[in-house]
Structure formats: C-alpha cells, structure tokens
## 1
Amino acid sequence: MELSRVIFWDTDYDRIDWDAKSRFVIERVIMYGTISDWKAIQQKYGRKHICEEMLLSRELDPKSLSFLSCIFDIPKEKFK
C-alpha cells in the first residue's frame, strides 16, 4: 500500500506494520491524508474495519469526527 509519506512525518514510513498498526494508519489518513489515501485504506482495510477502528479512536479532531459521522451515518456521540 502506498500512502502519502508526509502524513507519517514522525515515523519511519518503510517500517510501518500496516496490519498491526491499522488504527494509527487510518487515523493519520483521516486527519491528514488525500482522497487517494482514503481510497487506498478502503481497499486495504474495508469500510467495516475502518469504522470499527475509528469508533475506538481517541485521536480524532473535530473535522475528522464530522467526516466519519457523515460517511458512516453514525452520531458523533458514538465515537470516543
């Protein structure tokens, strides 16, 4: 999977474990990624997994929370 390297500015991109760190990867794409990055994580993880991980995330900013709430049709209050 190829994502925008700049969204992982504080991490060694080449050493990211895409499966073990899926929540971290999804959070970064949601908050800082491009539409291409969004499409890539949907192909890699699927919408169900993305939704499940983001419902557990404590790192979401207000803009990302609003986006996810709209995309998944889930009230903002359901997110942590």
## 2
Amino acid sequence: FLGLILFSHAAHAAKIDTPMPALHLYSACLEAQRNEYARGFCDGSIDAFYSSTKVWCVPSTVSHGEVKQYVRAVLVKKAPPISLSASDAVANAIQLGWPCL
C-alpha cells in the first residue's frame, strides 16, 4: 500500500524548469480570466518576481494591485521568446511602465 502511495505521488510530480520560462507565466496569465488556479499562479508569480526586483522606480502613489494588473496586461499581449525568464519578463514590463530616470 505504501508503495502505491509513493508511486502515485512520483507519477504526478513534474519538475518545473528553473528559472521559470516567461512562456509558463504567459500561458497562466492568458488563462487567468477563465481559471482560478491559473489566476492564482499568474498573480502569485508576478507578486514573487516584482517583490524580488532590485530596481524599483514605481511611484508610491501606484498600488501593488495596479502594478500587477499592468504587468499582466503587458505579458499577455504577445508570446515571449523561449529564452526569456519569467522574472526578466516581469522586470521588463515594470521598466516599460515605470522607467527609472
């Protein structure tokens, strides 16, 4: 019985590429309006990536929700190149919207 449980878990676990490709985030954000799990993945990933951004030039008058909404809108406009990481895609979107001067 224990072997069945261990095998079952191993059969369903899939390794996620590190760093996460922007294409994964793009796909989740495209599905976000139709699927609550995709929305959670999209929003959570954006939060995680922009929270670790070293350069932050977004004015304090802009809420984190507005940043997330903007980043999501930028991400879903066009499929990203395969080589682009999700963290770079988020950083690029933030830099596009709120460039550091």
